[in-house]
Amino acid sequence: MSGFKPGLLPTLVVLTLLPLLVWLGVWQLERGEQKRDMLARQDARQQAAPVGPEQIEHMDEPAYARIHLQGSFDAEHSFLLDSRTRDGQVGVELLQPFQDQPSGRWVLVNRGWIPWPDRRVAPKFDTPDRPLKLAAWVYAPSGKPFLLNRRMAEGWPRLLSHVDVETIWQLLGREGIDYELRLEPGPAAYRADWSITSMKPQQHLGYAVQWFALAAALLALFIYFGVHQARGSKQ
């Protein structure tokens, strides 16, 4: 093609970068679709009637299912999930075992976020000492986090870097439901404004548009450079 001579190096650069940019755009579209599906499932589960904790074990996908509980917290064994932030403030999330009386099942309930501005002073919280009726929902993370240190701190309340429900039940020597339950706002909850996903589907779409725009700009520059080079070689 005499009217198009981009050269070897620009061609190699485009052949390397163009598929990568297109792939990144497609990947963002797929992530956005996954987030839309996640939010749709969460909304459907929130509208459904709540179930008892014993029914979670028989669900294929229990994530976001609403749970009704009736029983008491174990005030002697509290867990603090470290490095949780709200509005730029550092804090912890409070998790406590809760025994559901109708089913006899132990569940791990996340009561919400508590500020912890001064690490020299333990976070302040209290535990109701009376039987309670609670509403919660099943939190099921999409994957296990990458952690260099998986050890728990000693003493009570016990500081955690991540929540491993199975390990917690082993530590307590109990049989319990293998899911974290997040408390809905109510008298026993602290700050329970849970975020289902850190990035909305619209944000993924915006990133996809940016990657596709970069791919289009790269291709346009490649064509312009090739045509310009071909014209220059004829002079």
Describe what this molecule looks like in 3D.
The protein has 235 residues and is of the alpha+beta class. It folds into 2 domains: 8-36 and 200-234; 65-183, no CATH class. The chain has helices spanning 8-47, 165-172, 201-234; strands at residues 66-73, 79-86, 89-100, 106-115, 132-139, 158-160, 176-183. The protein has a 5-stranded mixed barrel. A hairpin with a 2-residue loop joins strand 2 and strand 3. Helix 1 packs antiparallel against helix 3 (201-234). The longest helix has 40 residues, at 8-47. The mean pLDDT is 84.
Break the fold down into its secondary structure elements and pairings.
Blueprint: H1 8-47, E1 66-73, E2 79-86, E3 89-100, E4 106-115, E5 132-139, E6 158-160, H2 165-172, E7 176-183, H3 201-234
Parallel strand pairs: 2-6, 4-7
Antiparallel strand pairs: 1-3, 1-5, 2-3, 3-4, 5-7
Helix pairs in contact: 1-3
List keywords for this structure.
7 strands; 235 residues; alpha+beta; 2 domains; 5-stranded mixed barrel
* C-alpha termini separation: 17 Å
Q: What's the number of extended β-strand segments?
A: 7
Structural class: alpha+beta
**Topology pattern, helix = H, strand = E:** HEEEEEEHEH
Order the strands across the largest sheet as they lie in space.
1-3-4-7-5
Provide a concise account of the structure shown.
The chain has 235 residues and is α+β, with helices and mostly antiparallel strands. It has three helices and seven strands. Strand 3 and strand 4 (106-115) form a beta hairpin.
